Amino acid sequence: MNVLALETATSSVGAALARDGDAVSSETVTSRREHAELLHPLVAEVLRREGLSLSEVGAVAVDVGPGLFTGIRVGVAAAKGFALALSVPAVAVTSLEAIEAAVRAKSKDLDGALVVPVVDLRRGDVAWSLPNGSGRRSLSWGPPETLVAEIARVARPGAAVLLAGEGALRYSGALTGGAGRSWRLANEDMAAPSVASVAMLAVAALERGDVVTPSELVPCYLREADVRINWSTRHDETAGEGG
Predict the structure, then answer these.
(1) Which end of the chain is flanked by fewer CB atoms within 10 Å, N or C?
(2) Would you state the pLDDT for residue 229?
(3) pLDDT value of residue 227
(4) Structure pTM?
(5) SS3 sequence, 177-229?
(6) CB of 31 within 8 A of CB of 61?
(7) Mean pLDDT, to the nearest integer, of 110-118?
(8) CATH code reported for the domain at 96-190
């Protein structure tokens, strides 16, 4: 099966193609505000490179966030459109899953380290995932100081911790600067979610039957959009003045 994967949740915009269970082609560029303009040419390029047409895609995967609100919307909308037009299943992957998968695939010296993917949500907040004790991971968000406390709560005493992602790099001082912490940062080339990792996670999800219909693809924002936060703040201030 040919699986088309899309990545627009952070500053990276990417498309990848997995054929018969292997990621064979991917294209990624960095953008701050041109996710919509860049995504579709990247899709066309990975298909052209493999000599495929869009009609030969059997499933569509997309990074649903958390991350940049506008970027997430672009990717989810495109994935819905492709999946609906092709009548194929969709797979939702989080940006935190994609970062963790890339770290585990590229890092050779983890040696039992706790891998913590961290996405920058702006406004002083980050999103992360940590083991929840059931063999799965829970997603949370808040200031870096909250993440520090959460890692200290779940990590074994003296265990190594590897933080990865744009959020980890931006707040590296707050996250790794504490006395006695054996915490380190992953390389910058693993800071953004890898679209190839999105593709491979989708392959595994398809094997498990963990798919959704296009209409069931929804963004994973974790917190309210900034525009709503700003509107609420102004509304509360106006109401206070009127009172």
Answers:
(1) C
(2) 44
(3) 44
(4) 0.89
(5) CCCCCCEEECCHHHCCCCHHHHHHHHHHHHHHCCCECHHHCCCCCCCCCHHHH
(6) no
(7) 91
(8) 3.30.420
Q: What is the CA radius of gyration of the chain?
A: 19
Domain ranges of the chain: 2-95+193-232, 96-190
Question: Hey, CA dihedral for 184, 186, 192, 197, is it positive or negative?
Answer: negative
Q: pLDDT tens-digit profile of 162-214?
A: 999 999 999 999 998 765 677 999 999 999 999 999 999 999 999 999 999 99
Same fold, 2-95+193-232 and 96-190: yes
Type of residue found at 74: V
According to the model, what pLDDT value does residue 104 have?
A: 92
Q: What is the CATH number of domain 2-95+193-232?
A: 3.30.420.40
